[in-house]
Amino acid sequence: MIPETLNFKGYGKNLDFWTFLEHAYEKDLKLDLGHFIILCILLYINETYSKLIEEFGKKKARRILENEKIFSKNSDYISGEYLKKYIKRNSRGAVHSRIRDLKKLGFEIHTKPGFLGGYKLLKTPEWFK
Fold first, then answer.
1. Could you read off the pLDDT of 58-91 as tens digits, one per residue?
2. How far is CA 23 from CA 17, 20, 84, in A?
3. How many Cβ atoms sit within 10 Å of the Cβ of residue 126?
């Protein structure tokens, strides 16, 4: 469902590197490419999920993304297992630390703990829009 390479240009106006650096510097955070990759995936999945809901309804849309191993079982949260392969890490802890940093930058991301848990982007900060 998600392409092997991510189109950062698709979110180009929102992913201004210097603006991110400025806000990260203010919060004393060190960013790496994994932060941007995770953010792009969260944005892309939200957009895809919305389109699937329009086409198939919420229940079937969730099931489609669950069958693709994007959503955790019985939820609409993006799996940490799914995210970690895009940042080429072996642990979900690496994903969680980047999510924590994005939260410090003002992104509202709900975390569902546990093996069947995951992440859901609820809101972006004003500076991001």
1. 999 999 999 999 999 888 999 998 999 888 888 8
2. 10, 5, 24
3. 7
> For residues 128 and 7, what is the distance between their CA atoms, to the nearest angstrom?
18
Neighbouring CB atoms inside 10 A of 81's CB total 14
CA dihedral 56, 112, 69, 100 (to 10 degrees): 110
Q: How many separate helices (H) and strands (E) can be counted in the chain?
A: 5, 2
Closest CA to 40 of 91, 89, 3: 3
Gap between the Cα atoms of 95 and 87, Å rounded: 8
**Are 15 and 36 in contact, with CB atoms under 8 Å apart?**
yes
Q: What pLDDT, on a 0 to 100 scale, did the predictor assign at position 7?
A: 53
Burial degree of 35 (CB within 10 A; 0-12, 13-18, 19+): buried
Q: State pTM to two decimals.
A: 0.84
DSSP state letter for 78: B
